[in-house]
Design a protein that fits this description.
mainly alpha, Beta-clip-like, Serine Threonine Protein Phosphatase 5, Tetratricopeptide repeat, 4 domains, globular, SET_dom, metal-binding
């Protein structure tokens, strides 16, 4: 099995981190280090009809599968090319109807198993790391994660056993743990979830809260671009998590999902934590215990909102989103008695409120929250952040929709300035966004 390698990049042993990637030549900001096609991927169910199942192209007038009528394609060519994967689900979706409900992780795992049956040589996604070499961290899994794995194993057997030769329990346990720890979420230009995938070579990169590269997507291909100057010999570092939050929160997330604590410069110095946790200047300053109590409240309400949003599933309108908006507003009122609007916990709930307003088509409400968010986002996130770009993009499109063209174009241009570095100037998103404000001139 021959290893092709990647020009300008090599696999190496990173001190204290294990395997990693490092540069063997210089890269400037915006340079493409490498592109990695997905080993296996799956379109999320909520985007069916809007994106092609095979290539993730977004367009109107997609052709549907004649049998299940659930999968959509650009053309017959895309449909035929996807059949080896779609056939795992096509008949089952017809047979189970509304009861067909495997999780996205289960769907992705089924496709990996199917590919492993036919993949003999090293794939183009495994130039530096084989899928079987992905970390599983089985020994670090707590009981809750083990139970979730077992639930997924049962779902695999239930939904896929008629069309797929499923590995034994031990092999499945390892594979699911690998997928959970190394899977990637494919997102669009506004960071909306499009699907899940595995990119072995991309997974080889280690984490830093001061990343020098960013991962974006062109269809089902992951692209890794420099967001800092990279010299020959430098380790290539990405971020596994949302970097908005303070050091303690970031490391809690890293320990829970990836089983390590970050020791990067930002985590060591905590230089941004004070600004991220900014407290109001009051005539009677809040006591340290009151601040700690509000932090505990903020963390709890964020988790409560996540559960409420998931259980009520506003995306399909099964519950009035007004309840979620009220939850946001009440929490903002309470936190605002101690926290500044630039505090990251305030920003988190403002972002959720903005999302609910967009769903409710309350454009003015969404714009109001977005305007409060954008400046502190630019302060808290690193340069060329997709979170900042997506906020500029949302605001730009809101302003254009409300026929406030100068503001709309200004924000779209700010989004483009970030996205041309993060996605590359030739990405189709650039042409689409430019067309939006060209039409408004």
């Amino acid at each position: 099995m021959k290893t092709e390698g990647i020009d300008g990049i090599e696999r190496f042993t990173s001190p204290g981190k294990g395997r990693g990637l490092r540069a063997t030549k210089r890269f400037k900001v915006g340079d493409l280090l490498f592109a990695c096609p997905s080993y296996a991927y799956v379109l999320t169910v909520s985007e069916r009809g809007a994106h092609c199942e095979l290539c993730f192209t977004r367009k109107e007038g997609l052709a549907k599968c004649g049998k299940c009528k659930k999968a959509f394609y650009c053309n017959v060519g895309c449909q035929r090319a996807d059949w080896s994967m779609h056939k795992l689900e096509c008949s089952a979706m017809v047979a189970y109807g509304e009861n067909w409900s495997p999780s996205e992780t289960v769907r992705l795992t089924a496709r990996i198993i199917a590919k492993q049956k036919t993949q003999i040589d090293r794939s183009v996604s495994e130039k530096l790391l084989l899928l079987g070499e992905l970390e599983a961290h089985l020994n670090e899994l707590d009981n809750e994660k083990r139970e979730m794995n077992q639930t997924d194993i049962e779902a695999l057997h239930h939904f896929y056993s008629k069309h797929l030769e499923i590995p034994d329990q031990a092999a499945l346990t390892v594979l699911l743990a690998q997928v959970n720890c190394n899977g990637f979420t494919i997102e669009d230009e506004e960071l909306s979830h499009l699907g899940s995938a595995v990119f072995p070579d991309v997974a080889l990169m280690n984490h830093s809260c001061c990343p020098n590269v960013i991962v974006t997507y062109k269809g089902i291909v992951a692209e890794v671009r420099a967001v800092q100057e990279i010299s020959s010999g430098d380790e290539v570092l990405t971020s596994y998590i949302d970097l908005l939050y303070p050091t303690e929160d970031r490391n809690e997330r890293l320990r829970d999902s990836y089983f390590f604590t970050c020791d990067c410069k930002e985590c060591t110095t905590k230089t941004k934590d004070k600004a991220k946790m900014k407290v109001r200047h009051l005539s009677t300053p809040p006591k340290p215990e009151a601040i700690r109590e509000m932090v505990r409240y903020a963390r709890n309400i964020i988790e409560d909102f996540r559960r409420a949003k998931h259980s009520k599933n506003i995306l399909v309108g099964s519950a009035p989103p007004s309840e979620l908006l009220e939850m946001c507003e009440l929490s903002l009122d309470k936190m605002g008695s101690i926290f500044e609007d630039t505090n990251v916990y305030m920003l988190h709930m403002m972002y959720q409120a903005m999302g609910v307003c967009l769903y409710m088509e309350d454009w003015d409400g969404a714009m109001s929250y977005g305007e409060k968010i954008i400046r502190p986002y630019s302060m808290h996130y690193p340069p060329y952040s997709l979170n900042v770009a997506s906020m500029y993009l949302k605001l730009g499109r809101l302003y254009l929709g409300l026929e406030r063209k100068p503001a709309g174009i200004k924000y779209l241009k700010k989004a483009l300035a970030i996205m041309e570095v993060a996605h590359g100037k030739d990405h189709h998103y650039m042409a689409e966004i430019k067309k939006e404000f060209e039409l408004e001139k």
